[in-house]
């Protein structure tokens, strides 16, 4: 419930601070006195957009602050989810700066308008003539039936399952599309893959083949060069090996005379050993060199195959070809996996469809049981509100389409008088009838669900006399379970309140101001008398006002 409201520099209000109590509060005042300003200020607290026209003094900022007792609203989870400090006495503050910028705070933590709107849903429900017309909306009608049917948890489970069901359907459509596209390319990809597999490529193979090809293609010059080198190395008198031996023998004679000569001997000895090994290696190579035209042709063909594949796939190495081969293999395997995924998803969708159907049937059955209860209660309340012959024809028909709240389609028909046909609410109900129906609905919902603070903005339009008295009694009864405000022009309703506030407008030094004041008992008698008789209060009006209050 709202416990206090503070307004500074808003519209016609320079400064206002007022406390509210639980129960049934009345707000009255002449047309144009500023009742809509109070609602506008509350609207800003609940997250409505603001502009500079809201400022009374354009040079100063506007501040609206509302305090709420939320201890019974179970909102701890909401505050944790939005990373806000929870307080049983929560303060919402809205500031509008002269620059036009707006700021919002919940318990001094800055928030955006969406967070303010999300919290506002749990705090205050303002019903004006416009909101009354929302009663003709099918979703609102379903909400009323579901509150009485206690369908909230079932619908929550249904909605979660429906979200997963739709996600699976979307994934299935994507896979089917991908499968269709893959099928078109599968033959070509399979051809490319088989071509690469047939090549039996190996990492590093290209370099080895190119080396073998160069050797085989130049076997004659290689053989000639090695044999010539061997001849120079091994010639008996002037060969390199013979000369090295001669040099070694000469240095060996002088090696004992100096460490430097000894070092030269060691180096020449090492050189002779190394060159002897080189000579043996050249001999082995010479013996292995054989001209093999068949191997040369095989090597050339394999290289040409590799070059052709590289050109086709626009790569430069065998490793890149192997990467493409692996990718093609994965695509072929993936196509098989897609078929398995499609089959699995189809099974999941079918199972979830069965579960959705079961939940939708439960929702439907609960609604069928709730409809007579709703209809009977509304007929009983409306009979006391001057609509003794009202009838409702409410039908829910289960179809095949999955809606957000089940599979039902709703027909909410209404007849106000005997002998008249049923029709849709929005087409056959008058403004006064809609106001009474809305009050009946709220009175019934108060018995089944935890409603926020309700503000009825002239919901009594089009009624008077005994009907107004009964409307006041209904709101009074509702206020036993929740905080109720009624903005009214009817003394019969005003007299039913636990507290009575008056909105008035005055002019001070050519400055028009509005204020909201809690009336004393005596002031309240005068206010109701004025509502009965006008500005000039007669004794009979005063007596009538006292009678109404008593």
Automatic annotation (TrEMBL):
Keyword Acetylation among record annotations: no
Every RecF/RecN/SMC N-terminal domain range: 2-505
Keywords for this protein: ATP-binding, Coiled coil, DNA damage, DNA repair, Nucleotide-binding
Coiled coil spans: 321-355
CDD domains linked: ABC_RecN
InterPro entries in UniProt: DNA_recomb/repair_RecN (IPR004604), P-loop_NTPase (IPR027417), RecF/RecN/SMC_N (IPR003395)
Cited function: May be involved in recombinational repair of damaged DNA.
Family of the protein in this entry: Belongs to the RecN family.
Designated name of the protein: DNA repair protein RecN
Biological source species: Flavobacterium plantiphilum
Primary gene name: recN
């Amino acid at each position: 419930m709202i416990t206090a409201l503070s307004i500074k520099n808003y519209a016609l209000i320079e400064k206002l601070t007022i406390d509210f109590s639980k129960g049934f509060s009345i707000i009255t005042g002449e047309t144009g006195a500023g009742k809509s300003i109070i609602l506008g200020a509350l609207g800003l607290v609940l997250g409505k957009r603001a502009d500079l026209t809201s400022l009374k003094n354009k040079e100063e900022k506007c501040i609206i602050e509302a305090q709420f007792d939320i201890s019974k609203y179970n909102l701890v989870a909401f505050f944790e989810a939005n990373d806000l400090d929870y307080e049983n006495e929560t303060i919402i503050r809205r500031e509008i700066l002269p620059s036009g910028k707006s700021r919002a705070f919940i318990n001094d933590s800055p928030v955006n308008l969406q967070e303010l709107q999300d919290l506002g849903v749990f705090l205050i429900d303002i019903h004006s003539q416009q909101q009354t017309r929302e009663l003709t909306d099918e979703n609102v009608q379903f909400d009323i039936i579901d509150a009485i049917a206690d369908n909230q948890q079932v619908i929550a489970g249904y909605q979660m399952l429906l979200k997963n069901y739709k996600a699976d359907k979307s994934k299935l459509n994507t896979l089917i599309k991908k499968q269709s596209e893959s099928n078109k390319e599968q033959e070509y990809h399979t051809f490319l893959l088989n071509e690469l597999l047939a090549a039996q490529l190996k990492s590093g193979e290209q370099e080895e083949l190119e080396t073998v090809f160069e050797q085989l293609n130049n076997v004659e010059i290689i053989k000639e060069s090695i044999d010539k080198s061997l001849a120079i190395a091994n010639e008996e008198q002037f060969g390199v090996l013979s000369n090295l031996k001669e040099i070694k023998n000469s240095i060996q004679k002088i090696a004992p005379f100096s460490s430097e000569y000894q070092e030269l001997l060691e180096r020449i000895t090492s050189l002779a050993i190394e060159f002897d090994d080189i000579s043996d290696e050249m001999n082995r190579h010479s013996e292995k060199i054989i001209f093999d035209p068949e191997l040369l042709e095989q090597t050339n063909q394999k290289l040409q195959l590799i070059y052709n594949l590289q050109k086709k796939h626009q790569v430069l190495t065998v490793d890149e070809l192997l990467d493409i081969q692996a990718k093609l293999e994965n695509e072929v395997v993936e196509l098989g996996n897609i078929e398995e995924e499609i089959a699995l998803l189809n099974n999941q969708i079918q199972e979830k469809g069965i579960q959705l159907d079961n939940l939708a049937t439960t929702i439907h059955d609960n609604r069928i049981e709730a409809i007579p209860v709703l209809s009977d209660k509304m007929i009983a309340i409306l009979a006391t509100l001057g609509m003794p012959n009202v009838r409702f024809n409410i039908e829910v028909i289960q179809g095949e389409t999955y809606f957000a709240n089940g599979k039902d389609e709703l027909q909410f028909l209404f007849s106000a008088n005997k002998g008249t046909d049923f029709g849709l609410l929005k087409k056959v109900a008058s403004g006064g009838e809609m106001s009474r129906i809305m009050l009946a609905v709220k009175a019934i919902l108060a018995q089944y669900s935890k409603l926020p603070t309700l503000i009825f903005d002239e919901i009594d339009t089009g009624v008077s006399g005994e009907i107004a008295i009964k409307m006041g009694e209904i709101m009074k009864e509702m206020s036993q379970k929740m905080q109720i405000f009624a903005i009214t022009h009817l003394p019969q309703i005003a007299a039913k309140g636990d507290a009575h506030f008056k909105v008035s407008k005055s002019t001070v030094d050519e400055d028009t101001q509005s204020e909201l004041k809690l009336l004393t008992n005596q002031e309240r008698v005068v206010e109701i008398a004025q509502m009965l008789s006008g500005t000039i209060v007669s004794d009979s009006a005063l007596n009538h006002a006292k009678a109404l209050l008593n």
